[in-house]
Design the sequence.
């Protein structure tokens, strides 16, 4: 499928303008779909660096998945179908990204632990010496952007997933219980099961961070949410880790990697991860 990025790949310029990988890829895909969403894109900033610089799934994936969810909502009147398509299409971009990088984890991609002062210093020094435009993250953004668009469009094109049932997923439930609109709940759907059912760092946590930051962005239309010292995100992470005993991986928290959206939905319907949803949506 043709993409404007195949003709004019401006991913590096967009990255410079947006400032974070997560916001960049939400913007690139939203623009491709013809619906840029300023507040929703800015709210993604804390998910860069693999969720608050923790090194988990690359922010490019969180951003791309959010844009996919928005497009799934526009394409499907039935919300259950929209959720299923958003999750399925997110699975496709995860596979595409992993094919390009051999991993989906920020820490493995950049080779530094951004949670430590030494790691962050070494990373910033390397970027400074290379020049931002020649940095690994900027090069990756330029290389993967057309592939991300293609994977997203292919994933969204799958119309008949054969579910015909009520679909509930962890990330959408968190957004809904935080007062999110139908559109917002679908936007975050792909985060479920550790991002597209891949079993990695919890998508419900990322959904909670994003929704809280979205509310903040709406209240502060000319500002970007705090990146390095985000008190709201830190509180959510702290409360989440209390419930999970410090575990971040979906597959370990749930003792399984969900093979299908139906399996995940049934798990949530039967009370799975209820304590996590509650702690992420409590005042």
Sequence:
């Amino acid at each position: 499928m043709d993409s404007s990025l195949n003709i004019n790949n401006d991913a590096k310029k967009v990255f410079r303008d947006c400032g974070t990988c997560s916001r960049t890829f939400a913007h690139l895909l939203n623009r491709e779909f013809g619906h840029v969403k300023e507040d929703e894109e800015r709210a993604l900033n804390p998910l860069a660096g693999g969720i608050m610089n923790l090194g988990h799934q690359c922010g490019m994936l969180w951003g791309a998945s959010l844009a996919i969810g928005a497009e799934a909502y526009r394409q499907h009147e039935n919300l259950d179908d929209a959720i299923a398509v958003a999750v399925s299409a997110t699975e496709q971009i995860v596979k595409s990204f992993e094919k390009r990088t051999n991993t989906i984890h920020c820490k493995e991609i950049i080779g530094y632990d951004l949670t430590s002062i030494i790691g962050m210093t070494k990373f910033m020094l390397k970027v400074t010496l290379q020049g931002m435009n020649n940095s690994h993250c900027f090069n990756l953004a330029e290389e993967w952007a057309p592939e991300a668009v293609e994977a997203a469009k292919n994933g969204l094109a799958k119309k008949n997933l054969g579910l015909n049932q009520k679909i509930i997923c962890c990330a959408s439930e968190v957004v809904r219980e935080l007062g999110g609109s139908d559109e917002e709940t679908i936007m975050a759907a792909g985060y479920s099961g550790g991002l597209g059912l891949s079993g990695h760092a919890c998508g419900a946590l990322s959904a909670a961070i994003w929704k809280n930051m979205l509310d903040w962005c709406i209240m502060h239309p000319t500002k970007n949410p705090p990146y390095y010292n985000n008190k709201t995100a830190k509180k959510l992470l702290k409360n989440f880790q209390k419930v999970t005993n410090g575990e971040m991986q979906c597959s370990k928290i749930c003792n399984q990697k969900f093979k299908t959206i139906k399996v995940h939905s049934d798990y949530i319907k039967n009370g799975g991860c209820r304590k996590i949803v509650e702690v992420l949506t409590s005042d």
About this structure: The chain has a mean pLDDT of 95.
